[in-house]
Amino acid sequence: MNATPRLHDPGTPRPHAHPKPWLRDVGRLTFGNPVSRVYLALFAAAVVFAVVDSLFVGRPDASMSGVWAALLTSPTLFPLWFAGDALWPDAGAPAWYTVTTLGVAALLNALLLGLVHRGLRGRPAAPGAVVSAGWHTQRHGDR
84, 67, 77: which is closest to 106 by C-alpha? Predict the structure, then answer.
C-alpha cells in the first residue's frame, strides 16, 4: 500500500481553478460586450477631457468640463450622491467620494448596458406576417 496520499486526481476537476462563475459573468457583462466598451470609452474620454481642461486651461470652472462625465453616469450617479449627502450632512461629501461615485456609477451603467445587450441579443427574431384565420382578400372583392 502506498503511504503518500495523492493531492489531486487528474480525472477530477479542481475545486477552485477558476474565479467564481458569477464574478466572471459580471465581468463579461461589464467589459465583454461592444455596447459596454463604447460606453466606458466615452466615459473615459469625458474624464480625460475634464482632467486636461482643469489642469491646463486658466479659466476658473467656466467650461464645466466635469458635467459631461456626470451626464454620462446620471442614471445611477444621483442616488450615490444623495447617499453621500446623508453620510456627511453638515459639510457635504468630500471630493474623493464624489470622484469615486463617478467611477462606480460608470461601472454600474456598463453592467446594466451589458444586461440589456445580452437580453436583446438572445431574443429570437420576430415571426413573419400571419394571415388571421385564413382570410384571403382576393376572394372577397379586395384587389
Answer: 77
Q: How is residue 61 written as a grid cell? A: 470652472
Reported as half-sphere exposure (CB side, CA atoms, 13 A), residue 102 has a value of 17
Q: Is pTM beyond 0.70 here?
A: no
Residues 130, 132, 135, 137, CA torsion sign: negative
Q: Which three cell numbers stand for residue 1?
A: 500500500
- The Cα-based distances of 69 to 3, 50, 66, 127 in angstroms read 64, 8, 6, 41
What tens-digit pLDDT sequence spans the chain (143 residues)?
555 555 555 565 555 556 678 888 888 888 989 999 999 999 999 999 988 888 888 776 567 888 999 999 988 999 998 898 888 888 888 889 988 999 999 999 999 999 999 888 886 655 655 555 555 555 555 55
